[in-house]
Amino acid sequence: MSTQIEAERKYALAPGQVLPSLATVAVPGEVSQFTMEATYYDAPDLRLLRAHEVIRRRVGGADEGWHLKLRGAGPDQRIEVHAPLASRRLPVALRERVADTLDGAPVAPVAVLRTRRTEQQLCGPDGTLLAVTCVDHVQARVGDHVEEWDEAEVELGAGGVELLERVEAVLRAAGIVRAEAASKIGRALAPVLAAAERPDPSAGGAVLAYLAEQIGVLQNREAGVRTDEPDAVHRSRVATRRLRSALRTYAGVFAPGAYRALRTELRWHAEELGAPRDAEVLRERLLAAVAELEAPGREQVADRVAASLAEAHARAHAELVETMATERYERLQIGLETLLSEPRRADAAIEPAEDVLPAMFDRAVARVRKLAAHAAARPGDLTRWHEVRKAAKAARYGAELLVPVFGDRADADRARWEAVTEAFGAVQDAVVAQQVIGDLAWHAVADGLPRLPFDDLRHAQDRLLRESLARGREELGLALAGDAQAASAPAPF
User: Fold this and answer.
1) pTM of the predicted model as reported, rounded to 2 decimal places
2) 410 contacts 403 by C-beta, under 8 angstroms
3) CA-wise closest residue to 313 among 281, 288, 287, 290
């Protein structure tokens, strides 16, 4: 990665207009022509553009690669950071340079600019490159909108600001004036800049805003996941689950089947994130349980639990990092970027969110109700209650998405479903803990450790399981009753 200071000015040109001779300013040098294609990246609300920060991936030309442009010291200066073209995704080092501006927002393609450039060198008498003039024909594509224009640039080499002034005097005499937009991307995005700042009241807008928030978590926590920073894996796992859930619950705002494959890939990544996270949580849970034991040999048991689950966590995290270096993972992340930049909307997406989304949410709740009845018919079957828990999570995240649309009522619903998922989550944790305790006990007893502490641990987890199951069923009843009351109320949600 390299950094340089560039100084340049941009000028507007009429279609087909050429620059006048600059032989009175400098010695005309070599002329070259080439085509470049640049994909520009920003947050959905274009916060980088408003901060005069630019990220692009340029193919073609002498300086192809990833470019980050930041404000310079003077009005004509910019700091430009270059990274190699190799990666199809934004390099982490460039993202970190604009982390404060992004403030957790995701980055995705917002425009593609194709430029045909004619470039001429301006040299000193000794051949020193003083500046370069560029005449560009630009084709900009923003969504379905395509715009074309001509412009010119004068970029300094070894020359100073006085050279820019002399060149500008010649251009001004030929009727060529400064461009209104300071950058190509500024001009391309000018029509959508104001709209990007306003909340989108449509169903598609509400769903995409929620998805963008979760994609932002994945992108901004990615480096932390690789290095196992505190909470990075947990938050990324939750964001992945929220993405899958929202894409399923509110699939009606997208074209039929549009993101079924993406949901599958998100499930894969969630499972990879889950292994180290589960080992971490289980270690904390069991060590806390061991600390409450009164049986002799407690310290030895704690050491065995800590060592075994620390090893499991390290192994699972190493496997997670390996998967994040694969093409499959890269395709997943690019798929999420494309979801934001080119969403495949259905007709329902343009309808008001308050008119369209409640019915989709109701279907998620109906699924919980159906699975709850199925589980209640065989209450000792924990597999059935686990299915209830997964469906309740979909309801929880579905209500969470609706909070910006419906406010307190949706938030109350979210809280009810959160209570359900937390209780049934404790059931699942106890089931897994019992399995792990059994494995640990078998090996520990073979090594000469006492069995009693492990038996006590199993009994404690069994008690927690039964208590959590009872609490989960109670919370489930409250959530379903609250949903029924909300459905019968006159308000839209």
Assistant:
1) 0.91
2) yes
3) 281
